[in-house]
Amino acid sequence: MRIFEGIGLIIYLFLTAIVIRHQIQAKKSFRTNKINAETFQKLTKRNLILLTLIVIFLLLFLYTPFKLIFI
Hints:
This protein is an all-alpha fold. It is built from 2 helices and no strands.
């Protein structure tokens, strides 16, 4: 079971890293004036929603019998 939890954590950390990378790219593009403020707000909102979903699913995965569905 520890191996399964480890693999799950790695997957969630990988997904989190992808969302954070997208946010950094959005900030960089906004600062160099490649995207306007409205687009930046949309991207930031989307990234925040995705990050929130990842954290919720990570907590469900770690602290509930939710992981029994995936076994």
